[in-house]
Amino acid sequence: MTNSIRLVHTADIHLGTPFSALPELAAMLQQEQLQLFMNMIDHCRQTDADILLIAGDMFEQAIPDPSLTGAVSEAFRLLSKTRIFIAPGNHDPVFPDSPWLKNSWPDNVHVFRTGLEKAALDDLKTCVYGAAFCSTAAVKPLTGHQTPDLDATKINILLLHGDLVGPGQTSVYNPVDKGWLQHSGFDYVALGHVHKGHDIPERMPQSDTLFAYSGCPAGRGFDEAGKRGIISGSLIRVEQPGLSGRGFRVDHNLCQTSLPGRQYKLLDIDISGCQNHDDIYLAVRDGIRHSGAAWQQDLFKIILSGAIDDNLQPSPALLQSRLAPDVFFCKITDRTTRAYNLTALSGEHSLMGAFVRRVLGQDEPDWSKLSAEKIQMLQSGLQAFEGEVLYREAD
Ligand SMILES: [Mn+2]
Question: Among residues 30, 69, 88, 182, which is most buried (max CB within 10 A)?
Fold first, then answer.
């Protein structure tokens, strides 16, 4: 006999993020962030999730705007068939004036407000344990050092915001010792705090315990670029003896699931060989279009790289204005180096020409035959000329 519980695990939503790095878009991105949260709630509804686990930092601030807590509370209330568990994190700890103590939350919401605490869901043959940050740091494990006395007839879940640490490691954000976790007996440990999440949960070595960081459901800047999501799927109770000797073990089909929304993307586009501004534009446009199906809604930070002809100076401003009609946001930085025409330069009656002749010595003015050291010397020297001395000043 098998049966399963459907769950959604998320964390680090940081509702109320000011998006101050992109002031012109901040209001819009804040609105979209709340929409993303609503999309997550919709996902719970569509998948008939039995349990929604929120592993801390749901809010950016300890005391969020009341309109935000109101919208969240109402969304939770409408998700009435899902039991919702929240373990507050270092950004939204349980303070006397925090919404975790001050507000009344719907009946289907359980907020962990202290050290390790248990909530039993008898109909699901499941217990959810959790603990809360009660200040912006926690140098000791919020769970304490003892392993809890778990009910071996139930699926046992642990919900925590914190840092997984190995032997000798410490953290001021609730150090969760891997050795402790390995022997804890929990079936699934839903973690928050690390914003880059697992694609699928991992199993602790020689243990039945599964664990995962969900990561943040969407990036909030270029430091959170790439695919993000929530963890969604089922824990499956398989009636076969587990490693710990109890009568069943827990399998899963949990995996990272993306929610509709924008992605932050970092692209390095090599524009070597481009002859003019049109070539550069087309290379960048193609790079953006090949970055994924939803490229029109994404935010791009693009580095132009490669070596290009010294008569062509890439213009990030020109590129940004040409891309603007098609791309939601892009910021372009030119990191190209110049592919100087050494034959022409070495024949020039100028300081640059003299410099090239001096570096080349007996060598032919052919890039492909020069030592790496000479190439570096020429690149750096010629670029310094462009920045530091009058252009091709006669020697
Ligand atoms: Mn966080």
Answer: 88
